[in-house]
Design brief:
Cupredoxin; alpha+beta; five-stranded mixed sheet; Ser-rich/MCO-related; 14% helix
C-alpha cells in the first residue's frame, strides 16, 4: 500500500518525464533571434576618399558592425562574391541609403548590422565608381580559400562597369553616431 505522498511524487515524476520529451520545430517556428555579444566593430567609410578601414572584419555571431562615414557621400550595400557592385539578386541586401553626406569630420549618423552567422558578408559602396575603385569589404572572409579572398573580390569589382544602387534602404539600423569626435 502506497501513501498519498508516494503517489504524488510518482505522479510528478511521470509528468516531468512526459513534459521533457522533445518537440519538432519547423522552419516557420524557428527563431532568427541573435543574442548580442556587446562587441562593436567600427569601420570607417571614405578613408582616403574611397576606402573602408578595416575592409576585412572578423566578427562573431551577435557582434555589431558599425560604419562611420567621412566626407563625401558614401553608402553601404551588400552583394555576393560572384557579383560585386550590385545588390543580392533576391532583394535581401542590406543597404544604408545615402544618408551620411558630410563636408568635414564624421557624419552625425552611423549604419549598423548584427552578424547573424559566420558566412562571409560581402559589401560595397554603390556611389559613383567607388566599388570599381576598391571601396569594398567583407565580414568573416573564409581565409582557407584564396579563390574567395578580399583581394579577388576587389579584382572582380574592378572589372565591373557600374555600381547598382539597391532600390530600398533596409537590413540594418541608422542611429546617431555614438562617437562623433572619434578622430578617424
Amino acid at each position: 500500500m502506497h501513501s498519498f505522498g508516494t503517489f504524488t511524487i510518482l505522479s510528478l515524476a511521470a509528468a516531468a518525464t512526459i513534459s521533457a520529451a522533445p518537440t519538432a520545430t519547423t522552419a516557420e517556428e524557428a527563431s532568427n533571434t541573435v543574442t548580442l555579444t556587446g562587441v562593436t566593430h567600427s569601420v570607417i567609410a571614405g578613408l582616403g576618399h574611397s576606402l573602408f578601414d578595416p575592409d576585412n572584419v572578423v566578427a562573431d555571431i551577435g557582434d555589431v558592425v558599425e560604419w562611420h562615414f567621412l566626407p563625401q557621400n558614401h553608402s553601404i550595400a551588400q552583394s555576393n562574391f560572384a557579383e560585386p557592385c550590385q545588390p543580392l539578386s533576391d532583394g535581401t541586401s542590406f543597404f544604408s541609403g545615402f544618408n551620411f553626406v558630410t563636408q568635414q569630420n564624421q557624419a552625425p549618423d552611423v549604419f549598423q548590422i548584427v552578424v547573424k552567422d559566420k558566412n562571409p558578408i560581402w559589401y560595397y559602396c554603390p556611389g559613383q565608381i567607388h566599388c570599381q575603385e576598391g571601396m569594398v569589404g567583407v565580414i568573416n572572409q573564409q581565409f582557407d580559400n584564396p579563390d574567395f579572398s578580399l583581394s579577388k573580390y576587389k579584382e572582380l569589382a574592378a572589372e565591373t562597369r557600374i555600381s547598382i544602387v539597391p532600390p530600398v534602404q533596409q537590413g540594418g539600423d541608422v542611429i546617431a553616431n555614438p562617437n562623433p569626435l572619434g578622430g578617424f
